[in-house]
Amino acid sequence: MLTNLKRLLLLAAHVLEKRFDDFRFSFKRRFGLLDPFEILPYRGHGTDRELFLKGRVLEETGITRPGRDDTVWLNVLNMARRFASGEVAGARVLASFGELRAETRADEEGFFEVRLRLTEPLDSNLRWHPVELELLSPPSPGGGEVRSKGHVLVPREAGFGVISDLDDTVVRSSATNLLKMAWIVVRNNAHTRLPFEGVGAFYEALRRGGEGDAFNPIFYVSSSPWNIYDLLEDFLNVHGIPPGPLFLKDWSPTVLGKHQDYKLGVIRKLLETYEDLPFVLIGDSGEEDPEIYLQTIREYPKRIRTVYIRDVTPGERDAEVQAIASEARRLGTEMVTVLDTVAAAEHAASTGLIAQDRVATVQAQSRGL
Fold first, then answer.
1. Which CATH class is domain 34-60+87-153?
2. Cβ neighbours of residue 192 under 8 Å, at least 6 residues apart?
3. Distance between CA atoms of 333 and 328, rounded to whole angstroms?
4. 10 Å Cβ neighbour count for 74?
5. Cα–Cα distance for residue pair 135/140, rounded to 1 Å
6. Phi and psi based region of residue 114 (left: phi greater than 0; alpha: psi -120 to 50; beta: remaining)
């Protein structure tokens, strides 16, 4: 009974959301209130066989570039603009990569996905490959072409990949307290949100690998909405954390689902795309990362080298997380619970994931040196 009721409520929400969006778009177009359109590409990923790129077509949001001295009011205003963005449902987008062309259509929320099947080897000197994007329809208000450029990461010389959570793993978020987390996100920008000490140096060490000369890809998975993609991308850049594709969620009421299902889906996709690459998983104890990563170990035996869990709930989930870690160890993967980044770096150096001399760099950054 409850399941049927939930389905009916979701269906009703979907209908209402679509009608409201259609009415808003039609009303603004009729009275000349539409802002110019833009294509927002998200960092993609790929292989020597195919490239994957996701993006969104929206009315221009007017978000200003973040600064360290921005006021709380400006940060709140920019956040409001992110969530009040007007999607362009059904927009047609052309993606070009060399001689390859692929046309795609955006969904009701303006999201589109491109998959380019390669016919020739990629330039071996590049790791990030540019993909040109052009809006075919509808025409942007005021005329003029709407173009953008996305970038797709293709791993080369990689010994392993890294899949990392963001909230309370890389960036301080208080994810276990929704109101506190919402206030942190709304009132800050990329400069004022704080990473955990030493994260940038540790992730760079993982990217370089045990010999120091590799280029191991890092993928970031978060339940944060796509609306704050630019904030998270800027956050990584500002704080010197290695760039990588970000996988976020559509917070539309019709597609919201369990955190565990969503995150497992992304991890499965990455492990199946890079079927010859082992992975390191990084998360925290605040939500369901230990459970999600244990399920990954079960489904992909011998593919997960190590799991690092940042303990952000000392005393609360200790017994539960330790039981999960014991089960992971029984299955052949060590799940290490750490209180800080230095402890993770020391363990990673002891197992050859990072170079030994990188531990000192992580220590120095953790001390603010």
1. mainly beta
2. 68, 70, 75
3. 5
4. 14
5. 9
6. beta
Distance CA 176, CA 181 (A): 8
DSSP states along 67-132: -TT--HHHHHHHHHHHHT--B-TT-EEEEEETTEEEEEE--TTSEEEEEEE-SSPPPTT-SEEEEE
Architecture in CATH for domain 161-366 = 3-Layer(aba) Sandwich (3.40)
Listed in order, strand segments (DSSP E) in 301-366 are 304-310, 334-338
DSSP H helices, 192-317, are: 199-208, 229-238, 259-273, 289-299
Strand order in the sheet with 50-59: 100-105, 92-97, 128-137, 147-153, 37-46, 50-59, 111-117
Helix axes 199-208, 358-366, angle to 10 degrees: 160
Could you tell me the sign of the dihedral formed by the alpha carbons of 253, 268, 235, 150, in that order? Answer: negative
Which sequence spans correspond to the domains of the chain? 34-60+87-153, 161-366
Contact in structure between 289 and 328 (CB atoms under 8 Å)? no
pLDDT digit string, tens, across residues 102-160: 999 999 999 999 999 998 888 777 899 999 999 999 999 877 899 999 999 999 889 99
How many residues can be counted in the chain? 369
Distance between CA 151 and CA 179 in Å, rounded?
A: 34
Instruction: Quote the crossing angle between the two packed helices 289-299 and 318-330, to the nearest 10°.
Output: 10
> Token match 């191991």: residue?
216
CB within 8 Å of 81: residues ≥ 6 apart: 61, 62, 63
Q: Can you give the pTM of this predicted structure?
A: 0.88
The secondary element (H helix, E strand) that includes residue 28 is helix 2-30
Phi, psi of 324 (to 5 degrees): -65, -40
Q: Give 248-281 pLDDT, tens digit per residue.
A: 988 665 544 566 789 999 999 999 999 999 999 9
